[in-house]
Design goal:
Order of helices and strands: HHHHH
Structural class: mainly alpha
Distance between the termini: 39 Å
Helix content: over 70%
Strand content: under 5%
Shape: globular
CATH superfamily: Leucine-rich Repeat Variant
CATH class: Mainly Alpha
Radius of gyration: 11 Å
Number of strands: 0
Number of helices: 5
Number of domains: 1
């Protein structure tokens, strides 16, 4: 269920599983309101710059302020990682 998807996103983020980025991006774009915040946090934790386009889109257009904030934080984190 939804709780399982949230937990899966959390675990993938902790594992820094770059192979999970495409699937997580799909959930960021079309997942439930309860899953998208966890997905944005997981993508930030994974740290793959390939997630930046999807995170930028979510930061600008997601209907939930909490998702927009987490996506923006992820963009900032990934952008800082790229610059260093």
């Amino acid at each position: 269920g939804r709780c399982g998807r949230w937990r899966a996103a959390d675990v993938l983020g902790r594992m820094k599983a770059k192979t999970a980025v495409p699937g997580l991006l799909m959930h960021l774009a079309a997942g439930g309101d309860d899953v998208r915040p966890a997905v944005a946090v997981a993508l930030a934790a994974i740290g793959d710059p390939a997630a930046l386009p999807g995170l930028r889109l979510a930061a600008a257009h997601d209907p939930l302020p909490g998702v927009r904030l987490r996506a923006q934080n992820a963009v900032e984190r990934l952008t800082n990682v790229q610059v260093k």
